[in-house]
Amino acid sequence: MAAKRLYDWGVIAISMLAGLVVIFPLIYCIGVSLMSPSDLGSYPPRLFPSTLFLDNYKTVFSSTPIFTFMWNSFLIAVIGTIGRLITSSLAAYAFAFMEFRWKKGWFLLILGTMMIPGDMLIITNYITVAQMGLINTYGGVMIVMLVAAVFMFMLRQHFMTVPRDYRDAAFVDGCGDLRFFAQILLPMSVPVLSSITITSFIGLWNTYLWPLLVTNSEQMRTVQVGITMLQFPEGMVYGPIMAGVTVILIPSVLVFIFFQKQLVFGVTSGGLKG
């Protein structure tokens, strides 16, 4: 019993230490965002400010239209994530449950696109978007974000674990493909869908290069592009930059917290209710 208790305390201590290591950059970022210039230049470096210095946040809100940037990023991340969920789940359903010609070949082709680095497609995508007249528009930013092969693969693999007997029984009861997909299969897939939502939202929220290329006005900039406006000619100003980073981290943290509850619910609620 004593050995078991010692083991449990050891696991807890290691978990807390690992969590502290992971969260330390965030703690330091918040601490720097509240430091005055004298605290930032002190030696040895400080982890926490001697006094709360809120002028860094005032600089963020006065020097940049941060709310416009956040709205642009939020809109792009939400619509892009919804688009990915729709296209990925429909494609995964077709590959998991339907039979059609060259099914395996099409799936292997989709897997092959995962091996192509995204940077290799930037020039081709930019030319295509420019020819469509979508430069400096929401559509131009989001059009390349509505499909993700990796999410198709994840959902297809999950759907393959669902017994076909569920689909056969639903069809006997009068369900079609669309009703089975929407009312039975998707509720059973809440954990996977939540994981995809978190990954996709954070990835699109943090995207930098593509929005930088296809937007050329301040009103269309995203947060990752707009935060570079806090670099002043006299040099790197760490306080305001860290304040801006802290502000733009808030939506990602909130999304993770919200969908973490959905993950727990999906795992504990089970698949079907009798």
Structure description:
It is found in: Cell membrane. Its main location: membrane. It comes from Paenibacillus tyrfis. The protein is mainly alpha-helical. The protein has a single domain, classed as MetI-like (MetI-like fold). The relative contact order is 0.14.
Produce a short descriptive summary:
The chain is an all-alpha fold and 274 residues long. It is built from 14 helices and no strands.
Give the SSE order as H and E letters.
HHHHHHHHHHHHHH
**What's the level 1 CATH class?**
Mainly Alpha
Tally of helical segments: 14
CATH architecture: Orthogonal Bundle
Task: Compile the SSE list and pairings.
Blueprint: H1 2-33, H2 37-40, H3 55-63, H4 66-97, H5 103-113, H6 122-131, H7 138-142, H8 149-160, H9 164-172, H10 177-188, H11 190-205, H12 209-214, H13 223-226, H14 238-269
Pfam family, one: BPD_transp_1
Transmembrane segments: 12-35, 69-94, 106-129, 135-155, 184-205, 237-259
Keywords: Cell membrane, Membrane, Transmembrane, Transmembrane helix, Transport
Features:
71% helix, transmembrane, 0% strand, mainly alpha, MetI-like fold, 14 helices, transmembrane helix, 274 residues
